Structures are given as C-alpha cells and as structure tokens.
C-alpha cells in the first residue's frame, strides 16, 4: 500500500509542467547523443553537471540526467543499424545484425523493433525498480561500516572485472581513482595529503572537473586523432512498425533481454554494455534460426537493445538504495545528487521520498516520450549526423570550460580539468577502460572511512569483516571472484604460452 | 611486444614506489588499531608497484596491437587543441569571457580544423553569440567581464 502511495506521489511530482519539460529535455538530449558517435551518456551527463547548480530542485535535475542516460540507449541503435557505427558503447552488438537488416532494406523493421524492445524493457525494469528498491533499502538500513566496506570493495572489483579490457589495467585505474580521491584533507586525521603546497588542492579535486576532463575533453582529444566523417545516410528506412512475423520472432528475445538486462544492471560494474553482449550470446543460443545471426536476425537486434535499456533503468537500484553507483553514468548522477545536498543510500527513500518516487515515476513517462521521439522521428535524428565535428568539438570545449569555471569561479578548476583531459586521452591511447575511475573516485572516501571506522570499532581486529554475517558473505564472494579471476588468467597464460611453444602440425609430422 | 605499454608500466611502478614512500615516511602509517593518513596510500602504492610490474611482464608477450603510440601526425590535432585550451583557460580571466571565446573559436577553426576564412568567421561569430546567449543571458552565469569594460 505504501508502495502505491509512493508511486502516486511520484506521478504527482513527475507530471508537473517543469518536470515534464526536463524529462523531455533529458530524453531529447539522450537520444541526440546516442545518435552522435563519439559522445557517450557519461560524458554528456558530466558536461551537464554544472547545470545542476542552476536547477535548484533535486528531483528536476535528476529527472533530466536519468532521461539522458536511458534516452541514449534508444538513440544508440539508430547509427548502429543505419551506418554500422555504434552511437554509444552499448549498441556495438546491434551493428552486427541491425546493419545487415538495413542492407537488406529492412532498416525500418530493425529500428522499430529496437525502439519497441527498448520501451518494453525500460518499462519492465522501472516496474522492477518500483518493487525491488524499497525492500532493498529497508534491508540496507542494517548495514554498518564493515558491511559498507565489504559491499564497496565487491562493487569496485566487479566494476573492474566486468569493464572491457584487461583486468590489470582496470585495477590500475581503480587505484588511480582511489588515490585521486585522497588528495586534500584526510577525513579522519585532518592531515593534508598529496597537495604538494598547492592551496587549490587542499579541498581535493572536484568530481565535476574529473568527470568533464576524463569523459568530456579526453574523449574529444582522442576523437580528434581520427578523421572519421559520417556518410550521409542513403539507406531507405521504410516502415518502422515490425510485421506480425517479426513480432512473433522478437517477442521472447525482448522478454529475455529485459530479464538479462535487469539483473546485470543491478550488479555494480554491470550496466548496459555487458548486458547487451550477454543478451546477444543468449539469443544466439536460444534462437531457432541460428544460421541467420550475423546476417540480419531480428532477435540479434531485439535482445541486446532490450537488455541495454533494462540495465540502464535497473542500475538505479544500487544507487538509490545502497548509495553505490554501478557504472560511470550512474556515478555522474551520484555526483548530481551530492551537489543537490542529497546523499544516495538506504535513507534516501525515507528522507527524500519525493526524489526517489519522482524519478521512478518520471521513468515511466520518459519511456513513453522516447517511444514517441524515436519511432516517427527517426529520419530527423539521422539528419543530425550532418553536424560536422569541427563545430561540435569547440562548442563542447567552450561549454565544459565555462561550466567548470562557473562552479567556483576560479581558473584552477579549468587547469584541473585539462589535467584530467590529458589523463583521459592517455587512458584511451593505452586502451584503458575509464569506467572504474569515477566509481573509485566517488567511493574512495567512503571506502577509506568505513575501513578505518571498522578497525576503530573492533579495536584493530580485522576479523570484524569476517565475523559479521553480511560483510563475511560479501567478502567470501569477493574472495571467490579473485580466485576465479586469477585461475582464469593463469589458464589463459598457460594456454597462450603452450600455443607459442608448440611446434606446428607439419613439423610434428 | 608493445614498447609504449612497457614504458607506461614502468611509470606506474615508479609512481607506486613514490606513493608508498610518501605514505610511509611523510603521512605515517599509524597502527592496525588506529590507521593514520598514510595507511591506505601506502597500500595503494604497493598495489600499484605489483600491478605495474604485472603489466610490464604481460605487455612483453607476443601479439597484441602493434599500432605505434607516437604515430606521425596523430598527435598534431590533439596537441594543438590542448594548447589552445590552456591559452583559453589563462585568457578567460585575463582578457574576458566573450573576447577570449571569440579568439578561441577563430584559432580553433584555423589551426585545428584548417577551415577557410569565411567559414571560420561565420562559425566563430555564431558560436560566440550562442555561448553569450546561453551563459550570459539565459543561465546568467557570472563569467569574467571584458578587459575593456573593467
């Protein structure tokens, strides 16, 4: 009953003129950046973080940010299907069958099933969020510093193992994020760390400068290296509503994708990219016409597109109930909440019910808006690709510079942002996935505080983490995960060494 | 073998050593009963040394991406862009927001994008006007005033 009361309250907030407008703006910006290659949702939310200082209502700003995040999942499929160019990382797998469908003159059906699948999955995930989040938050109220430490350690490690690229590189970036978070005043002893005499660094690095530098400018610097030019689309889009036959083939893929995406989205480090890849693999296994995969199977579009949308909505669950951001975009929303003076965590639903229910209700509304924006207006979005990068890049730079400057009116923040831009650029050059960096930066102070508080609580006895049931269980999972990873890496290295040393079959003969 | 990766891995190892030393000698470790400010930096530094060394060993293996990190010409655009951003960061308070934005736009189009004069002027004027309308008029962000208006 309390749940429906909350949801009703949420709709009364989400359906006000201002919130509807900002939900629409979020959905619109999200679709746009989803369509444009080279600018992901994390970067866009980072670029728009300073706007949260201007929007005084926390609900309104989070409604817009959330809209950008799940909106980008809708938009990402458009360029994947029409240009074989993923608009954002979660749509990479859509290229495989989506583009093949377009080549066969079935671009409309692919775009249609992607939008409908996204809508169904997004809605299912929001229903899941509505029912799962309140009891989970209730459960998390029993958490003390040892439980939080164990949970955050597990979350950070999962973020590394599930991010793309090497685990070693992921762990390095995780540590860099933790160390960057340590710059400034030590929260427990009050000592100044890593400032090297700079007054500007005494307050520590600001999350906005880090996010804008690594994700916004870092991405721009990297994109400047490649002179990709988007071709004007000549593919005939055709009818966007799928036929009955398409629908019959795709309906189970959509439901499976929704379930896979929902559960992967909840896992810290999961998110849209992993879920779309997992969904594609599952669809390949379940499909009746496996031979069509890679040649334009509609299941290969419906499953992953549903999964990435479901994951983008369900990844709000750990944020809003445990205060733990599971991926880079959610870390940006975490920062936006902090800017508004709201600490995400188990108390959020009780202390800021209007924020929680307002955002949840806006997701139902936002999904409908996105369906309307994406199905009939797909041709219009494609035209957006005509905007040259030579105009887009300097405008984004100006936007970020003024945005960062406006936070504290000091050029020191701009220089910090440029430092992070170089870091982000080098990370991309060296094939590092930047995802763990903002997570570690956000969670770093909390990890350190809960570790030291736990040790103080136990009088220096580290077994406190093992003797408490919840933290003990979480650390056991963490331990198993590490063992699994090490075993996997050792096996992989032995196999590659064996393949190098093994003489070829001809020699053996 | 990827040479640039091995160099980067060495930097990680050296950084780890420096951080661990800083945590141990400057910030102090404290005890397990009462960890001090250097406790976590020290552990992080040690972990960086181990991970950097692992990366060094792994990147010494065969295969992988052989693309050169320092490939000729690839650094030119990002380098120019970064230089312009540094100058813009300095100029925004010294010269003023609108003037520095206009100069930045012109310099970007000419140096980074190598656009023609007419297109440069058109894009720069329209871009600066858009920024002025958005930040000065619409969002009312307190940006630095122009040097000739002070």
What's this entry about, in short?
The complex is a heterodimer of chains A (509) and B (150). Chain A has 509 residues and is mostly helical. In chain A, 74% of the residues lie in helices and 1% in strands.
Cα distance spanning the termini of chain A: 76 Å
How many individual β-strands of chain B? 0
N-to-C span of chain B: 58 Å
Helix-strand sequence of chain A: HHHHHHHHHEEHHHHHHHHHHHHHHH
Contiguous low-pLDDT stretches of chain B (5 residues minimum) are: none
Low-confidence stretches of chain A: 504-509
Q: H/E series of chain B, N to C?
A: HHHHH
Please report which band the strand proportion of chain A falls in: under 5%, 5-15%, 15-25%, 25-35%, 35-45% or over 45%. under 5%
Global mean pLDDT of chain B: 85
Rg of chain B, alpha carbons: 24 Å
The biggest beta sheet of chain B is recorded as: none
Helix content of chain A: over 70%
Q: So how many helices of chain B?
A: 5
Radius of gyration of chain A: 23 Å
Helix count, DSSP H or I runs of 4 or more residues of chain A: 24
Taken as a percent bin, the fraction of beta residues of chain B is under 5%
């Amino acid at each position: 009953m309390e749940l429906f009361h909350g949801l009703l309250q949420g709709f009364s907030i989400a359906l006000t003129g201002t919130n509807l407008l900002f939900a629409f703006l979020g959905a619109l910006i999200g679709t746009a950046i989803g369509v444009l290659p080279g600018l992901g949702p994390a970067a866009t939310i980072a670029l728009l973080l300073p706007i949260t200082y201007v929007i005084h209502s926390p609900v309104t700003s989070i409604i817009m940010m959330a809209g950008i995040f799940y909106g980008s999942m809708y938009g990402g499929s458009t360029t994947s299907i029409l240009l074989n160019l993923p608009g954002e990382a979660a749509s990479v797998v859509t290229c495989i069958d989506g583009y093949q469908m377009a080549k066969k003159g079935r671009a409309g059906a692919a775009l249609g099933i992607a939008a409908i699948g996204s809508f169904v999955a997004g809605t299912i995930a929001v229903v899941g969020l509505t029912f799962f989040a309140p009891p989970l938050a209730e459960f998390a109220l029993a958490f003390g510093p040892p439980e939080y430490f164990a949970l955050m350690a597990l979350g950070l490690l999962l973020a590394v193992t599930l991010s793309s690229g090497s685990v070693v590189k992921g762990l390095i970036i995780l540590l860099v994020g933790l160390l960057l978070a340590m710059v400034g005043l030590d929260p427990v002893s009050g000592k100044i760390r890593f400032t090297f005499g700079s007054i500007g660094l005494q307050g520590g690095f600001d999350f906005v400068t880090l996010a804008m530098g690594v994700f916004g400018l870092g991405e721009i610097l990297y994109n400047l290296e490649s002179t990709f030019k988007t071709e004007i689309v000549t593919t005939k889009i055709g009818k966007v509503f799928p036929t009955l036959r398409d629908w019959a083939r795709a309906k189970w893929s959509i439901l499976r994708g929704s379930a896979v995406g929902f559960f992967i989205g909840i896992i810290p480090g999961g998110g849209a990219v992993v879920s779309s890849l997992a969904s594609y693999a599952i669809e390949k296994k379940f499909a009746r016409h496996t031979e069509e995969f890679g040649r334009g199977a509609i299941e290969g579009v419906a499953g992953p597109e549903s999964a990435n949308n479901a994951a983008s909505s369900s990844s709000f669950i750990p944020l809003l109930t445990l205060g733990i951001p599971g991926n880079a975009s959610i870390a940006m929303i975490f920062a936006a909440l902090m800017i508004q003076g709201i600490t995400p965590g188990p108390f959020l639903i009780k202390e800021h019910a209007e924020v929680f229910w307002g955002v949840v209700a806006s997701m139902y509304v936002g999904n409908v808006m996105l369906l309307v924006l994406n199905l009939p207006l797909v041709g219009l979005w494609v035209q957006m690709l005509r905007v040259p990068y030579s105009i887009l890049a300097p405008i984004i730079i100006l936007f970020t510079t003024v945005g960062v400057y406006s936070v504290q009116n000091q050029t020191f923040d701009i220089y910090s942002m440029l430092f992070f831009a170089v870091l982000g650029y080098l990370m991309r050059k060296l094939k590092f996935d930047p995802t763990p960096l903002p997570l570690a930066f956000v969670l770093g102070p909390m990890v350190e505080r809960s570790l030291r508080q736990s040790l103080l609580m136990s009088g220096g006895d580290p077994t406190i983490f093992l003797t408490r049931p919840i933290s003990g269980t979480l650390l056991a999972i963490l331990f198993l995960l590490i063992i699994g990873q090490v075993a996997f890496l050792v096996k992989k290295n032995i196999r590659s060494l064996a393949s190098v040393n093994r003489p070829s079959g001809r020699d053996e003969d | 073998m990827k040479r640039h990766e091995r160099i980067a891995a060495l930097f990680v190892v050296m950084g780890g050593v420096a951080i661990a030393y800083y945590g141990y000698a400057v910030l102090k470790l404290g005890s397990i009963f009462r960890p001090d400010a250097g406790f976590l930096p020290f552990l992080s530094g040690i972990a960086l040394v181990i991970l950097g060394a692992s990366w060094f060993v792994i990147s010494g293996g065969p295969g992988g991406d052989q693309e050169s990190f320092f490939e000729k010409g690839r650094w030119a655009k990002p380098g120019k862009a970064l230089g312009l951003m540094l100058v813009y960061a300095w100029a925004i308070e010294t010269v003023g927001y609108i003037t520095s934005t206009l100069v930045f736009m012109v310099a970007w189009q000419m140096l980074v994008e190598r656009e023609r004069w007419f297109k440069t002027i058109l894009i720069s004027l329209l871009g600066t006007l858009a920024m002025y309308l958005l930040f000065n008029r619409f969002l009312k962000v307190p940006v630095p005033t122009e040097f000739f208006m002070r």
